[in-house]
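Weekly modeling sync, notes
Attendees: S.R. (lead), two postdocs, one rotation student

Agenda item 3: backlog of single-chain predictions. S.R. asked that every request posted to the team notebook include the full sequence so nobody has to chase files. The rotation student volunteered to paste the first one in as an example of the format we agreed on. Action items at the bottom.

Example entry:
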Amino acid sequence: MEDNQFVAADILLLSTSEPNSLCYIETAELDGETNLKVKQALPDTATLGGDVEKFKAFDAEIVCEPPNNNLSKYQGVMKWHDKTYSLDNEKVLLRGCVLRNTQWCYGIVIFAGQETKLMMNSGKTKFKRTNIDRLMNLLIIGIFIFLVSVCLICTICCGVWESMVGNRFQVYLPWSSFIPGSPDKSQGTVGAGSTVIALMVFFSYIIILNTVVPISLYVSVEIIRLFHSWWINWDIKMYYAPTDTPAKSRTTTLNEELGQIEYIFSDKTGTLTQNIMTFNKCSIKGKTYGDPVDEYGSPIDITERTPKVSLSHNKDSDPKFTWYDRRLIEMIDAHDKDVEEFFKLLALCHTVMAEEKDGQLEYQAQSPDENALVSAARNFGYVFKARTPDTITIEVYGELEEYELLCILDFNNVRKRMSVIVRQNGTITLYCKGADSTIYERLHPSTADMREYTTSHLNDFAQFGLRTLCLAKKDIDPEYWQQWKKRHHEASTSMDNRDDKVSDVYEEIEKDMMLLGATAIEDKLQDGVPDCIANLALANIKIWVLTGDKQETAINIGYSCKLLTDEMNEIYVVDGETYEEVEKQLRDARSEMLAITKGIIQDPVLDMAALSNGTLPTTGFEGMNGNTGATEGAENQEFGGFALVINGHSLVHALSEKMELLLLETGSMCKAVICCRVTPLQKALVVDMVKKHKKAITLAIGDGANDVSMIKSVGISGQEGMQAVLASDFALAQFRYLEQLLLVHGRWSYLRMCKFLRYFFYKNFAFTLCHFWFAFFCGFSAQTVFDPVFITLYNVIYTSLPVMAMGVFDQDVNEYYSLRYPRLYAPGHLNLLFNKKVFAQSVAEGIISSLVLFFIPYCAFHDALRPDGTDLANHKAFGVMVAATLIVTVTLRCALDTGYWTGFNHFVIWASILFFFCFTFVFYVDLFGYSYVGTARMLMSTANFWFTLILTVTILLLPIVAERFYYIDTRPTLTDKVRLKQKVSKSKSRSSELILRRASTFRRSQRSLQRSGYAFAHQEGFGELITKGTNMRNSMSPQQIQQHRRGNDARSGQAKHSGSKSALNSANGDTPRDARSS
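Predicted structure, as returned to the notebook:
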């Protein structure tokens, strides 16, 4: 393979063009990261070079593990030239990687096609159908059964009618002319043809009444969905100008599902964050740097007028890097030894690759964290210049220093640290960086005082959600180094328990170190993420973060984006290594939640049998009458709730068949769930678990190829691989646009589709059943009450455009209030707007309307006379009368259901009525030779016609209007209240209104000072990130909860009596007071 070439199979690396057979790859399509990773071939196979003839003679035997989905691990052996070589993940190029900065490389294919690790991690593509689609299919079956039943009734009645009186109507129904054995007119007896007649009538009525089965429904639905997709694509508020990226709806079938989302599963890096790390603060030998200070040394706030420290004297510094604390620069200029060692560690202890591009030094790091740390050292004058497998070169203010690289002690999920051992001028030094918990355990006792100062600084950094690392060093005796080097070589070449042996050797040398200080890096959130998450939480949408990052990183971001808050009673960490440990941790967490909520939550215990049957209690929402229902599990609005953090290795056990229900039950009792160090397949399994047992509509969102298997609805186009976008149904440039997509477009789409379906079924039943009632007056002879032209044009012309306009444009409240009152999202969760009950109501309304539409004109026309004394009643006139009444009624009913009027709505509604009368009047003339000639002109010239029309329409619509006024006045829904508020405030300027979104509750309690800020995205052996952590929060006692409740009640009462319009506590989630009182 050559540089920049895509790796199409899992390949064992044999040789490369680089020294020591190093190979650089980009794994954006595997783990979502664009940073370069390093692979290295076996030294013995590296001698093959690029000689094709040598490869022809290559006859090694490879024995390895079977195909699996573990991206971070590979085990195997290669037998070649009577030697056995151990193979691991460092020597394998996985499918999906891209070769970078390597002229060429050779390898042998291990797995291909569906057996590659990338394909094993890709979830199966499923055809996605909405809940409304599934319900419609079921309803269509029911409607067809209804049609057959009605036709059978007509058939039976026809048979009876023909048997009893059919012989008297042979002039009108001459069955005997073409059906043998039909009723005998001369003898007055019934022949055997009655059965045949009845069968013919059955199929005739199938044809006549088939309009009750909405054949055009699916076409209309797809047209409406197409428009909904266009609204998403054209929304300027979801357009990201810096990258010229608009929102993109890649499907037209799932729009209304966006209005029913109950769970959001989100990636973290690149989705919630910008994946841009910035060196923010540091602590060196007990002194903290990073905050600007005044001339007296007192900290000051950073404003636009705060002067920045100039780094222009350093030609290698990044012009975009900002630093405000001049004290650190003064210490560097003074060549302070501790500061020098601090930044030398940052410049040496890493796996970054440096390269020159257009005269500029650029770094290719395995993680943004490493890039930020090395770049920080560079900005302060300690520039990492180059590396070889044996050396590292740095430049300290113009002077090059070369260090011999003796050993790299890799990260793993237990060590949570990395070290390098270097030698310069005969001095051997170990530099180490890692989590405070692991570094502190390995420090020399003489550093006790400095540990105390540094711990205080780490706590301060953690309050700001910064990612922290501790730095330490140790001088090594040359003789000890030689002995340790020998033991390290024996452990690293061992075929049995290699990892454990290497880890033990690392432990020997990483002790009695001297603490240098700590770093604090800011992983900046995307703009608007905290507000977006807070608003989605108010809509009772649960958010689960599924990330490949380690626990501390995810927790810190959780606090920054307000997914986790200090108001939460407890954050439970599940990090057990064995099945028994994980089960115990989950059960203990569940028991403690139930104990805390005892007496606050009614019936909090979830039935495990119900869990297995998929009948978990659903999330409570503010009902259609504005009252708040019971919440799910332990999510109570009078206290902070809980959060669950679980590691990937623990998730392996938790997702087992016997334990997944326990995990789901525990997670369902929490406001937030964070899954750390998860693989792509685990992300998909978590999503599937919730969908399977909760029967909930879920949304998965991510930006990397590692998110592809979990993505079911949305993909964010970020800085990483675009494979997630290509696999998604909706693509967004920023996470904050999810608020607009769900609370506005999703809710509107659901509302519009439900209104459309209700009206569609109503008008079809009202139209079709008029034929059924007419059957009782035509001897069940399969005659139609309307003329054929009207039947043809009813669904195509007369009633199609008004309902389509409603389905495309309708709104209950505008975009502004949709975002301001997230609780408006509740009906979608409960399927309140369209379900079997609503369908039955629409059908019943259609049946009643058909009765009124038929029998009022029938009674009005019975024995009616024209002004000239001739008979007015005839079949044609009666049919036109019913048709006119039907068109006016269903069109005005559509007008009543329309909540948002546009010019197009006005046009199609009134034009549909006008077109019917004009077309009927013009078409029923002699020019066309139609059998209904003159009927319309004659009928419309009589007062009887107009009186009957007005009477029938009034009888049908007046009860509907009265009912709506009654419920709006006595039992208004939240939508009614907000609509009223919207109308009242329409004349006011929006800028003068108070934004009622809840005030931030993101405060730091004393307990948060105990939370570690350690976070560093790195990989074990260039491939695996660190995981492991402990519960950093203390539980709140039931007495504290009651005290907290009383305090909230007191504050709430004070706010009420003082007339304050401030937003309510965000943990409550209720509607703002002025909305409920409007």
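Discussion: group reviewed the output briefly. Residues 273-312+333-524 form a domain with the Calcium-transporting ATPase, cytoplasmic domain N fold (CATH 3.40.1110.10).
Action items: rotation student to repeat for the remaining queue; S.R. to check formatting next week.
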